[in-house]
Amino acid sequence: MFGLNPAFIPGPTNIPDRLRAAMNVQTLDHRAPDFVSVFAPVLADLKKVFRTESGETFVFPASGTGGWEAAITNTLSPGDKVLVARYGMFSHRWIDMCQRHGLDVQVLECEWGSGAPADRFAEALAADSAQDIRAVLVTHNETATGVVSDVAAVRAAIDSADHPAMLFVDCVSSLGSMDFRMDDWGVDIAIAGSQKGFMLAAGAAILAASPRALEATERAGLKRCYFDFRDMRAANASGGFPYTPPLNLIFGLRESLAMLFEEGLDNVFARHHRLATGVRKAVDAWGLSLVAKSPELQSDSVSAIYVPEGFDSNALTDHAYERYGVSFGIGLGEMNGKAFRIGHLGALSDVMVLSGLATIEMAMKDLRYPIELGAGVAAAQEHFRNSTAAAIQAAA
Ligand SMILES: *Cc1c(COP(=O)(O)O)cnc(C)c1O
After folding, report:
1. Do the Cβ atoms of 281 and 387 come closer than 8 Å?
2. Which is the most buried residue in 3, 56, 121, 378, by most CB within 10 A?
3. Which ligand 1 atom is nearest residue 11's CA?
4. Ligand 1 closest atom vs CA 66
């Protein structure tokens, strides 16, 4: 009725009023000089979020999936070999895209709930004595399972095998919510989107490419046109776009970057960690378990939670929506029916998270889950009371 219920899906995320207002702009001639002054700082500031100095940033009108396509078609040729691990729905879909583009995809099957297997990547790269593998593809934050992977360890695996493969990372559901370091981790292409950590509507694929990746563009034989880095770079160099830019999103991005920098990226990450820890304390208190197999794999932007044996997670998310008007993430792929997800990224505060936990508790109780009403909320409250005070003191 009021349109105020936050969504607890892991993207698209809640859009703060400040960003909705920023996206509400009258048409502007994107060929007029004014556009340059809006867009050029956006591209420059995005580098700070990717934490890259040597890389170049791109904004394409697309969702994150388009960003995957831009990454592979700009750098690879038909038949090129890529190494990928499948450990959730998003890594699965990126693999499928690579196969449909005629790449030779070496897939390492991993149990869902685990992360990028740096040791197995090292073995596969060491075994590739002809150095045919052109790129290693990693989903930094597997949104389907709530698992964050150690990208630095993957880079170390590539280096330990003395292998020239490029490293492409999907950071759609981690950039702007969790620590991401393109240059430090030796990432060649990083792919994000407007609708998660940037708190905007979907519609912009946001990428950063290293000098090596940009060089590969010159030789890449896969067909591309709309997503060609060369056309975009040429147009961006003079402050323009090769076609009509998504103006509203670019205005939104400018404001979203301002919000992230005002809070401070490290504080943004600390807030996400605090919110995620509160959710994890609630999960513990309910006696449920996360899909993520071990603590270091637990994502700070989304938690995937197994429902008890004999329950259907789809019935739970349907009920929460129908009875209380609040959306939670369904179980994707192998997790369908078995797990639901709480998205805790973007524009969220402690009290908003508490409302989500209270809602899913009511839904679970309605469906006779063996939980005690208030148990999870109380566990999260206790964490937020203590950690918020500590955060405020640290800032004082
Ligand atoms: C959301 C998401 C994507 C992109 O999905 P789109 O719907 O195309 O924006 C890609 N990878 C991950 C890990 C995601 O969470």
Report:
1. no
2. 121
3. 1
4. 8
- 315 has pLDDT over 80: yes
Same domain, 171 and 54: yes
The answer as to whether 190 is a domain residue is: yes
Residue whose CA lies nearest to ligand 1 atom number 6:
64
Instruction: Tell me the C-alpha distance between 390 and 396, whole Å.
Output: 10
The pTM is what?
0.97
Instruction: Kindly state whether residues 144 and 270 are assigned to the same domain.
Output: no
Q: Is the shortest distance between the CB of 201 and ligand 1 below 6 Å?
A: no
63 Cβ closer than 6 Å to some ligand 1 atom: yes
Of the residues 261, 291, 307, which one is the last residue of a structural domain? 261
207 within domain boundaries = yes
Both 248 and 273 in one domain: the answer is no
Q: Are 205 and 195 in contact (CB under 8 A)?
A: no
User: Are 282 and 381 in a shared domain?
Assistant: yes
Q: Which of 238, 261, 284 is the last residue of a domain?
A: 261
Cα separations in angstroms, 267 against 90, 177, 353, 395: 27, 10, 17, 10
Ligand 1 atom showing the smallest separation from residue 196 Cα: 1
Asked if 363 and 316 count as a contact pair (C-beta separation under 8 A), the reply is: yes
Summarised one tens digit per residue, pLDDT across range 92-131 is: 999 999 999 999 999 999 999 999 999 999 999 999 999 9
The mean per-residue pLDDT over the stretch 291-298 comes to 98
